[in-house]
Amino acid sequence: MPWVKIEKDYVFQTELFDGRSQLLVYHFMLGPGWGEGCPSCSFWADHFNGLTHHLPQRDVTFKVISRAALKDIQKYQKRMGWSFDWVSSSESTFNLDLGVSSGKDDESPGISIFAREGDDVFHTYFTTGRGIEVLNSTYGILDLVPKGRDEDKLEWPMAWVKRHDEYAKSKGNAVASGIRDSGHRSPGMRLARALNLVPVPWCLARWGVFPDPVSQTLAESWRTSPAKTLRHHDKC
Question: Hey, which CATH number is domain 4-135, 3.30.70.3270, 3.30.10.20, 3.40.50.1820, 3.40.30.10?
Answer without folding.
Answer: 3.40.30.10
